[in-house]
Design brief:
This protein is an all-alpha fold. Helices cover 79% and strands 0% of the residues.
């Protein structure tokens, strides 16, 4: 039986790998840099940071 936390951990790991891939592709092929004033990298960064805060908050509270 897989516990709730092991299943959630797998999803979070997969999401992290996806975001890392997007970041690598963005910096290597699209010239994205943090703080360069472009909207898409900033939105991605803000969304990922928000998700990270939610995940940490849920683990601390739960």
């Amino acid at each position: 039986m897989v516990s709730k936390y092991q299943d959630q951990s797998s999803v979070i790991t997969a999401f992290g790998i996806l975001i890392a891939t997007v970041a690598i592709v963005g910096t290597q092929f699209f010239g994205w840099e943090w703080g360069d004033g472009r909207l898409i990298p900033t939105i991605i960064g803000v969304v990922v940071a928000g998700i990270a805060v939610i995940v940490v908050a849920r683990r601390v509270v739960g």
